[in-house]
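Incident log entry.

Two folding requests arrived from the same account within the same minute. Monitoring flagged them as a possible duplicate submission, but the sequences differ. Recording both here for audit purposes.

Request one:
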Amino acid sequence: MNVRRRLIRNSAVPAVTALTLTALSTLSTLSACSGASAAGNTDKFDVVASFYPMAFLAERIGGSHVHVTSLTRPGQEPHDLEISARETVRLQESDAVLYLKNLQPSVDKAVAQSEVKTKIDAASFTTLEKHGNEVGGHAAEHDTSENEELAGLDPHIWLDPVRYAQVAQGVGKAFEKADPGHAADYRKNTAALVGKLDALDEQFKKGLANTRTKVFITTHAAFGYLAERYGLTEEAINGLDPDSEPSAARVRSLEKMAKADGVTTVFYETLVSDKTAKTVAADAGLRTDVLDPIEGITDKSRGTDYFSVQEANLKALQKALGTK
């Protein structure tokens, strides 16, 4: 749908390298040979999403009117994403980019430098808070000079169905404004998605209302919003950074807390090594299980989309917390 069909202008990306031009040539050749459509080369509203939760929203809200591509491949840890020359071209040719500011520093920079007319920051549609055991989120570790007011804020808003619904409503309005010819369908699709998220919220409310304990341990502090929403307490081994190593003092503290609060399970996730979780669980005499932050869907996921994985998360929490 992007009628401009422009590449990268010097004002948008100061250092256009030969690699970028080569990537564009390769991308065009592949599209011509295979019939595949890259972002910006279709007759639909072309949306580039930063990672799975954003792509899921774009697909559900846009329906048949959008062509969605994700910058983060299935199975790739989104926090570690670095934008390639090929992905820069894809971003430049899109009609809109949907991302979550302060989660992926390389995406933030690419979006800021791009000429994409419609830039949709999911974080702007809800409130962010500080969670976890450490101050400083992923973006703060990489670039403390930008967005200092966001440093340490938890970006995992999609794991709270209520906040995710707020984001969905904001994205829907942004699509309506950017592609007014299909505004009625975007409103209809947004309402349907919000309805499903409201129903999921009720499932969690009822499913976690009566449990033996309210405390759970995770390797990665991704579930602060979910815990807050349903009256639970998340204790994370690694804080907001899934790849950091816990201190010996932190591990000892978790072991004492587990005994005091009747914790049975240490949760780990599918896109990050389970080594730390299994070590802590073995030392404390606990079992391990998966609690998926839904940063991507792979063949290891306990479901095929956001809703089915969230339902699997609910069952895992009910088992670990001892639903009455």
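Request two (distinct sequence, not a duplicate):
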Amino acid sequence: MKEQTNSNLHVSRAGKTDEFYTDISMIENELRHYREYFKNKVVFCNCDDPAISNFWKYFQINFYMLGLKKLISTHYESDKPSYKLEIIRQDDKIGQLAFLPDYVETPLTGDGDFRSPEAIQLLKEADIVVTNPPFSLFTDYIAQLRAFHKTFLVIGNLNAITYKEVLPSIMANEIWLGYNSGHFWFKVPESYEAKKTDFKIDENGQKWRRMGNICWYTNLDTTQRHEKLTIFKNYSPEIYPKYDNYDAIEVSRVADIPCDYFGVIGVPITYMTRYNPDQFEIVDVKSSGLLLTKKDGTVKSMYKRVLIRNKGGQTHAN
């Protein structure tokens, strides 16, 4: 059996620096919320070298605890044919939670790219896709999952909600965010160029890069997206200015959303981590272009904003 380490490697086919190694704690902290969804399912990790992938490691260790039917993993090889690993449930092993299931390795004829014919055939077989796709290919990756109507749980950047390939599905409540988001440290390879900020080398010489606005994208239902945001502040035009070029008010902090305003409200994209589709509707998302005149007369161009409207089901604090 191949040695496994606490990391997940994915390589961009776009020629960008796109190698990040996902810590297993990040995977465990998110996937613990979805255990009920995996029973009798085929799980596909299609951007994961099984030799070093923590996604593969997590599902292999928890194969029988989760009640999986099958686990498949593939990854991209830049200069040679790749391979797939598969674990198929053995009914006589059910209940043996400490049993580490073995796998079957099969060579692929192609490079294992998630868009290759072989990977697509495996995708068709899968019930749930779980992985950390290359950030530079995220829109291609999500488009493929949507085209094949797949259930998924994948890591991405929060800014992806503004992409034209992702935004319509977000607004239609066909994709939403998972439980965990924020800044996370990822292991990076030795060849990774040192950065002035959000970069460190630990005592073992391992390089790390901290990435901000990291989140999980999914279409598996979560309890979090049904929790209403508690809002209690009252609207006043002196406190909540309107944009110069859009009929909406600016609210720079999610905690300051007024409870008694039912027009369009512009909030930071971090609001999406608290989004409840029963409480608010998403009207639009603007990556740029919203203008706001400040009290001193200067005009400010606002950074990414989600434009929302209260449905009238807000929760008031006592």
